[in-house]
Design goal:
5-stranded antiparallel sheet
Length: 229
């Protein structure tokens, strides 16, 4: 078992223990019109084939419990790095965005295309995720370059402030109200435990201004950064 597989398994087991003890947790901010948490993020976008594959898992859960929050295809993503983690009242207009773009472009210049395999699912107490496994070392190369670049600047940032990001997952379902058939949800997790969703070579990174949920209607793309062959 690789270190990332072990990490995913540990998180999943901890979530299952929490769910067995206290039930699922619910995200009450999803429907809150006053939720003004915003931030800046670097991310990857799965292609249409991969999103359709993710949809098999999403549909299985939706058929069982349609009242939860299911990420629309346009919102599905893999976070490379939250440059500024979302917080209430964040205003990008006060920032030197050209400074961010210049710094990120320099950090990403030597980074090659990232290949990620998506296999299996996992739970957190409040959401369900698709597990991603980097096939090459470019995702970690990218993150380390970004950490080094932002360590030398006074630009506002919050890299690794919540936790050091080592995964390549995609959150696809959030629980927003009581789960009526938790055992069936857990059964679906078992069914998709090792399901192979597909693999993608990502040839560009997207820099966005976003809300907490990366909702398409809230996201503003600030720059695309192509990756080397």
């Amino acid at each position: 078992m690789t270190a990332l597989q072990s990490h995913y398994s540990q998180l999943h087991e901890e979530a299952l223990k929490h769910i067995a003890r206290e039930g699922f947790s619910y995200d009450t901010a999803l429907e809150d019109p006053k939720d003004n948490r915003r931030g800046l993020t670097l991310l990857l976008r799965p292609d249409e084939e991969l999103k359709a594959s993710f949809g098999r898992f999403i549909t299985a859960v939706k058929t069982t419990d349609p009242d939860q929050y299911f990420y629309p295809p346009a919102d599905i993503h893999v976070t490379i790095m939250p440059i500024i983690s979302c917080y209430p009242g964040f205003n990008k207009e006060s920032l030197d965005l050209s400074g961010y773009i210049s710094l990120i472009r320099k950090a990403l210049k030597p980074v090659r295309k990232m290949q990620i395999r998506f296999e299996g699912v996992m739970a957190s107490p409040s959401c369900l995720l698709i597990r991603g496994f980097p096939v090459n070392s470019e995702l970690e190369h990218c993150r380390e370059n970004l950490r080094a670049a932002f360590a030398t600047t006074h630009l506002e940032q919050s890299l690794d402030k919540r936790y050091k990001l080592i995964t390549a997952h995609s959150t696809v379902i959030r629980f927003q109200q009581k789960v009526n058939q938790p055992d069936k949800i857990l059964d679906i997790l078992v069914q998709f435990k090792d399901y192979f969703f597909g693999e993608q070579v990502f040839d560009q990174v997207e820099f966005v201004f976003n809300d907490w949920y990366q909702r398409n209607e809230m996201v503003k793309t600030l720059q695309y950064f192509p990756l080397k062959d």
